[in-house]
Known about the structure:
The structure holds 2 protein chains of 2 kinds.
Chain A: H1 3-13, E1 18-22, H2 28-33, E2 40-43, H3 47-61, E3 65-69, H4 73-87, E4 92-98, H5 114-117, E5 124-127, H6 134-146, E6 152-158, H7 159-163, H8 188-200, E7 204-208, H9 210-214, H10 218-228, E8 232-234, E9 249-252, H11 259-267, E10 270-274, H12 286-289, E11 294-299, E12 313-316, H13 319-327, H14 336-349, H15 362-372, E13 378-381, H16 385-393, E14 400-402, H17 413-423, E15 429-434, H18 435-441, H19 445-450, E16 456-461, H20 466-475, H21 491-497, E17 501-505, H22 511-520, E18 525-530
Parallel strand pairs in A: 1-2, 1-3, 3-4, 4-6, 5-6, 7-8, 7-10, 8-9, 10-11, 11-12, 13-14, 13-15, 15-16, 16-18, 17-18
Chain B: E1 2-10, H1 15-25, E2 32-37, E3 43-51, H2 54-66, E4 70-76, E5 81-92, H3 95-108, E6 111-115, E7 119-126, H4 128-137, E8 142-148, E9 152-155
Antiparallel strand pairs in B: 1-3, 1-4, 2-3, 5-7, 5-8, 5-9, 6-7
Amino acid sequence: MLGAEALVKALTEEGVEYVFGYPGVAICPFYNAILESPIKTVLVRTEQNAAHMASGLARVTGGVGVCAVTSGPGATNLITGIATAFADSIPLVCITGQVNSALLGSDVFQEADITGAAESFVKYSYLVKDAADIPRVMKEAFHIARTGRKGPVLVDIPIDVQNSEIKKYKYPEEVNMRTYKPTFVGNFAQIKKTVKALEKSKKPVICAGGGVLLSGAKGSLRAFAEKHGIPVVSTMMGIGSMPTMHPLYFGMVGNNGKPWANKAMNDSDLLIMVGARVADRAVNQPDIITENKVMIHIDVDPAEIGKNCGPTIPIVGDADNIFGQLLDFDFDIDTADWLDKLREVKKDLTVQRKTNPNFVDPEKFIGILSDKMEDNGIYVADVGQNQIWSCAYHVVKDGFFLTSGGMGTMGYSIPAALGAKLGLPDRQVIAVCGDGSFQMSFMELATAKQQNVNLKIVVFKNNYLGMVREYQHFTYKDNYSVVELNDYPNYELLAGAYSMDYLKVSRDSEIDGCIEKMLNDSNSCIVEVMIDPMDLVKG
Amino acid sequence: MKKIYSVLVENRSGVLSKVAGLFARRCFNIDSLAVGETFDSEISNMTIVSSGDERTLEQIEKQLNKKLDVIKVKTFDEQQSVSRELMLVKVKYNKTNRKDIMEICDIMHAEIVDMSKTHMIIQICQSPDKIALFVSMMNGISVVEVARTGTLALPKCNVLEN
């Protein structure tokens, strides 16, 4: 058996259904071997999107996304996608072809030190120099990617290693790494301390991060919050961990979040931070949120605890396990007054957006879209004003809300939506992007067509890089620099070029009919939504 | 504050670069770093001396533990450890200062390990503070070249294991 065949075999043992990628000579042995397997391949149009597609698929299926690209530029193009997955702890196995191992280090054609270049964006990486190591390396790579704090693992394989003969192929049943043993179960003493602190608390709040979704703790979080009447707020990555309309859910925190969510967190006397990094966008001054309160920080990655703020009670472990452990304790806390107060605050702080009747109000558009979407639909927001509006106004029921929260990688939505759709083909998948982010990855419209995927792409068009324009509006007093997009592309012609349908919404009155049409369209479509160029997320 | 990290790592290519890269990327200081194989050829020991506030020093330990090539991290203070540094110093001497140099070496337990008519190489293996003292004593003597290992340290025998 060849190394490349072993590689493919390992993927089938891991139950991989799709490999996203782009071939080149250095990865050709692998792409030759994959033809003999049941694995489906998706040819992307640029490598970065292979990682985003794998990410979209991984996030909705709960599995590991796989992409495979060639050496040199193929590998370096992949880096932004890997870094995006790393920032959001998305499990990926990224395979890169490499030049002949005898030539490594001699700067030959299409050689790039990808394990070196990607070091700070991967959970782990391998440069495989002996084909006999392939089964073990692949077993470890999948194990590392999907356990503990999930993340991307890079496997770099020189072409000669892919082409060399393996005498005996045996896929290991277990992983045995002395350096990697993540903690899954919460320390019992810390759990008890938490319960004691909760019993004393009058104003508890749970802040749910992306870790809640990654550990599959949606159910246990909700059960725990409901059992004790504890209000829940979330970070951007934690959106969807509670249904948006749940009476205990109080929205997203952070400088782009709901003011009442921030107030809930600040005014609480006990804060359970779970699966969240406490990074700058969610918590502006981490030292302040630990003041005058008991802070319980739950994370599967011990290095996150105490990194940005010092907790009173640290608990290392998997969020779902820990909520399960906490649910074993019966105790009563009365949060009725606290919840009343939060609802009052919410009412007081809710402000009406200023809208321009000559354009479409994004709040209204997203609200109606959420209403009309199927309950388990998948909403993929890109990066920019569209993302902040999506976070603020999309109502998650039983579906997913995907976005690049940690890295803020523009162009994420189209490839991630495509990956999500391939992962769960029966779900409604909608990508919402701006005209800036659309143009960063619209080459994948061809991929969507090639894969026969029904994709709905909403483009909030304002001829600006809106988020940066808004920043320049406030920071540089409208001294705009390099943020103006022109009127291109012509979205109608572009949709036609890819045999997709085209819809346009210019006024609020057209939203309803247009969304109906889009959702019922058997073809993919691009919806151009005219947004006031001067509209603000802080409007 | 100063801390010494004694780090057992997999003896594989690229591990030193990963650990050093971690310090650079997260803006942690490296006061010194010394690496060598242990009695098990698959495992190396790194002695890293770093300084920073309490949170940084705790983060260093956690981030080191997070690296998948790191087997074990031991953290201790200088006082809790036996620490040594080896330094080789090549100096140019003359008739007038030769005796002085030899006297300093004698007091500091340094050894002259190589010599020509004009130059000598002094070897000193001492605790970091003694090395610092020796360096200050060599002030005024013409030093040609220096090579030093950085601190090597192990926790003292009476310091309980973690």
